[in-house]
Amino acid sequence: MHATYAERGLRILGFPCNQFGKQEPGTEANIKEFAKSYNAEFDLFSKIDVNGEGAHPLWKWMKEQPKGKGTLGK
Predict the structure, then answer these.
(1) Residues 6+ apart with CB under 8 A from 68
(2) pLDDT tens across the length of the chain (74 residues)
(3) Distance of alpha carbon 36 from its chain centroid, rounded?
(4) EC no. (predicted)?
């Protein structure tokens, strides 16, 4: 998707999280190396929580937005 639409302004933001089936158990360095091995060209941010008390503020905000009526994409 990135390769196809990056020229048109698409930005993919990767936020590693270990809260979904323990898919990201490694350190940030491990995750970065893994992404690099696949020639990932998207922006990769620090490992965060997206659920619960410790959820990152960005994800808390996104979850509060009404479906189809938020400001994302405008």
Answers:
(1) none
(2) 888 999 999 999 999 999 999 989 999 999 999 999 999 888 999 999 999 999 999 999 988 887 766 565 55
(3) 15
(4) 1.11.1.12
pTM, two decimal places: 0.73
Residue keyed to tokens 């995750």: 31
| Tokens 């990767």 found at | 14
Number of domains in the chain: 1
| Assigned domain for 71 exists | no
The domain in which residue 39 lies consists of 2-64
In a domain, 74, yes or no: no
Backbone dihedral region of 50: left (phi > 0), alpha (psi from -120 to 50 degrees) or beta?
Answer: alpha
73 part of a folded domain? no
- Rounded to an integer, what distance in angstroms lies between the CA atom of residue 11 and that of residue 47? 18
